[in-house]
């Protein structure tokens, strides 16, 4: 709908239909498909709290891939800010410092940790590659979204067909049960996630992955704060400390450029007296 509305403008927006450009769009769809399945596989080995904490690894992996693949240079202060963001979000998700919480975090099988690390890497890789596609040419954002989500829908429908063949169509074909159990709340969730996807693509096009990472982390903290009022959630000391650390990280990363210099330039101090000025002049002469 947005693409059709924008195509009515004069001059019409740029839409590249060359196969050499279109063939790149299935790649992030495949990565996201694998990532979604790895997520569910990870949850079979670890609990939700451990999974959320391991998911914060994507903050650091995004920064690493941001530097390696997109060739974006980050200052030492910005690297420290990214690490602090991961620490702050992790701190806010830790429920307590008792032995029970530590045991639940460290008692999962090794397969769960490996899949969690793989999930974080796949999430970062998909985001970095999507940003590369969005900024590769000057195509309109809506045309790029159409290509991304079309291939994503095709691959996910193919997965449903494969599952039906494996199950012998015992529950009927997927198109007959695709919307079973849907309610108004379900459709609201679908609309919310779809709107979020459009906003994320806008960030990829006009900002970058680091901004998206900060937006996601801040949204998670905001959700936790709202839960205090909506669901009688009891805030913990870890939550307050995590919010403070994340705010520090936000300021460090987006500080003015003069504050992001790794090593301040050495400036010669002014002479303190007229005697020093005269002595300097005699030395120069």
UniProtKB/TrEMBL annotation:
Primary localization class, coarse: membrane
Protein name per UniProt: CMP-sialic acid transporter 1 isoform X3
PANTHER family, per the entry: NUCLEOTIDE-SUGAR TRANSMEMBRANE TRANSPORTER
InterPro entries, per database record: EmrE-like (IPR037185), Nuc_sug_transpt (IPR007271)
Family in the record: Belongs to the nucleotide-sugar transporter family. CMP-Sialate:CMP antiporter (TC 2.A.7.12) subfamily.
Cellular component aspect of the GO annotation: Golgi membrane
One GO MF term attached to the UniProt entry: pyrimidine nucleotide-sugar transmembrane transporter activity
Alphabetically ordered keywords of this record: Membrane, Transmembrane, Transmembrane helix
Pfam families linked to this entry: Nuc_sug_transp (PF04142)
Localization (cell): Membrane
Bilayer topology: Multi-pass membrane protein
Regions crossing the membrane: 24-45, 51-70, 77-94, 114-134, 182-204, 211-231, 237-255
């Amino acid at each position: 709908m947005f693409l059709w509305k924008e195509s009515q403008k004069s001059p019409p927006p740029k839409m590249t239909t060359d196969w050499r450009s279109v063939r790149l769009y299935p790649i992030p769809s495949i990565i996201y498909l694998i990532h979604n399945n790895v997520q569910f596989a990870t949850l079979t080995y670890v609990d939700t709290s451990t999974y959320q904490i391991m998911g914060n690894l994507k903050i650091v992996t995004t920064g690493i891939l941001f530097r390696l693949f997109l060739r974006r240079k980050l200052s030492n202060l910005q690297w420290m800010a990214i690490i602090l963001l991961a620490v702050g979000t992790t701190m806010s998700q830790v429920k307590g410092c008792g032995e029970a919480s530590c045991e639940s975090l460290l008692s999962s099988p090794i397969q769960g940790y490996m899949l969690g690390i793989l999930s974080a890497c796949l999430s970062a890789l998909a985001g970095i590659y999507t940003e590369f596609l969005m900024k590769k040419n000057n195509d309109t954002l809506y045309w790029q979204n159409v290509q991304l989500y079309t291939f994503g829908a095709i691959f996910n429908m193919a997965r449903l067909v494969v599952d039906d063949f494996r199950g012998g169509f015992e529950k009927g074909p997927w198109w007959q049960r695709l919307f079973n159990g849907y309610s108004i709340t379900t459709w609201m969730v679908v609309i919310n996630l779809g709107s979020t996807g459009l906003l994320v693509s806008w960030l990829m096009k006009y900002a970058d992955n680091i901004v998206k990472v900060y937006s996601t982390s801040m949204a998670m903290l905001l959700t936790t704060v709202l839960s205090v009022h909506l669901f009688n959630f009891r805030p913990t000391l870890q939550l307050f400390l995590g919010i403070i650390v994340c705010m520090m990280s936000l300021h460090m990363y987006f500080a003015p450029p003069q504050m992001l210099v790794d090593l301040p330039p050495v400036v010669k101090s002014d002479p303190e007296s007229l005697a020093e000025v005269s002595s300097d002049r005699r030395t120069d002469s």
